[in-house]
Design goal:
This protein is an alpha+beta fold. It has one helix and 14 strands; from the N terminus they run αββββββββββββββ. The longest helix has 40 residues. The chain is globular and about 55 Å long.
Amino acid sequence: MTTLEQTIRPSARSREWKAIAILILMIPVLWSPLVLFRFVLYQPFNIPSGSMTPTLMVGDYVFAAKYAYGYGRYSFPFAPSWISGRFLAAEPDYGDIVVFRTAKDGAADYVKRVVGLPGDRIQMRQGRLILNDRPVTRVALKEAQAGAACGGDDGTKVKRWRETLPNGASYVTYDCLDNGFLDNTNVYAVPPGHFFVLGDNRDNSTDSRMMSTFGFVPIDNLVGKVTRIIWSLDEDGEPRFERMGKVE
């Protein structure tokens, strides 16, 4: 018995150390697909506010495609601040939902919809989006319950519009207030290398209409394009399976 134990234990200990050594050597290999996915292909984000309701809701988790617009300073964590420009650059299109950093706040990620490209003229008139001096097509939809998205209780009703941009991008916006604070604005001329973004929840969104605190978004500050809702939980922590896979 003693001899047998003395024979087995060194062998088991040897196999254990070999397994540990192999695992250590395999760490870069095991991590590389995750690194490739997370930092090069798709980055996950969760939605913490209702500024993009009804398209994106609090409790949604989304993927942003990092390759959609190429790679810049905010594409990778811990990138040095002196990096400028983009590699494999591509501009967003009308209606794209983008994740980005603002020129005013380089630390926080924001998600909004692109409605203005370089050279465009943007204005809001009585809550309607005006693009290059022409009202963007919109169709009134049946009112819906908005709840917290409009700052009210579950019975609060909200006006909804189906808005369609010149390239055919179509989505639903919320209009919580008549004559809201940002329903009438000056004309914004989008400068080169920048774009103009709005939240779909027009009366409850901090976006490019607020020039002093938000403003035009530099194209170099793009992180990625939102492509899909991958998971969603309601306020009670229950899954919203019907939302998975969506994004307009």
